[in-house]
Amino acid sequence: MSRTASLERVTGETAIEISLNLDGCGQSKIATGIGFFDHMLILFSKHGLFDLTVAAKGDIYVDGHHTVEDTGIVLGQALAQALGDKAGIKRYGTAFVPMDEALAMVSLDISGRPFLVFDATLPNEQVGQFDSELTEEFLRALSVHAGLTLHVKLLSGKNTHHSIEAIFKALGRALDEATRHDDRINGVMSTKGML
């Protein structure tokens, strides 16, 4: 069964097209108009071993908020669609990723119950043209639209670039673990019989 999705969202502020293959090899083609955000999505794809294409056009003359948040929305929807009924997946994933002085932990549950805990102090307000606070906005949009319980904790980090990079890499690795099939699982990983 193909675990892929292709979605588009067009509003008065953004136009986002995303294709996702959960069983890829980490190839990506990313163009959002925000260089640092592109870099983070490429890392997410590479470390999650997802094939990911993102074409986003937004009102970045205002700022990056709408583009980053709407990309999170569409990526979350694509993830939910690609997972289908979630039968056979491990459901939970946790990853610790170091990036020089930074250390990030991401732990998640593909639960159908969106919840974000974001515990990270990012020392600089901007990296390139990317507002650091948009890291949390992206993760919230992803969590809500994919149905993830998502915990993100920055355990150490003085360099904002390193800190955000560690978070995105850990997110990819945790999602890779949670979306993997396990032949021992009959149906979904829940005593309720559904996620």
UniProtKB/TrEMBL annotation:
Pathway: Amino-acid biosynthesis; L-histidine biosynthesis; L-histidine from 5-phospho-alpha-D-ribose 1-diphosphate: step 6/9. It comes from the Bacteria. It is found in: Cytoplasm. It catalyses: D-erythro-1-(imidazol-4-yl)glycerol 3-phosphate = 3-(imidazol-4-yl)-2-oxopropyl phosphate + H2O. GO terms for molecular function: imidazoleglycerol-phosphate dehydratase activity. One of its GO terms (biological process) is L-histidine biosynthetic process. Its main location: cytoplasm. Gene3D superfamilies: Imidazole glycerol phosphate dehydratase, domain 1 (3.30.230.40). Pfam families: IGPD. Its EC number is 4.2.1.19. Belongs to the imidazoleglycerol-phosphate dehydratase family. This is Imidazoleglycerol-phosphate dehydratase. The gene is hisB.
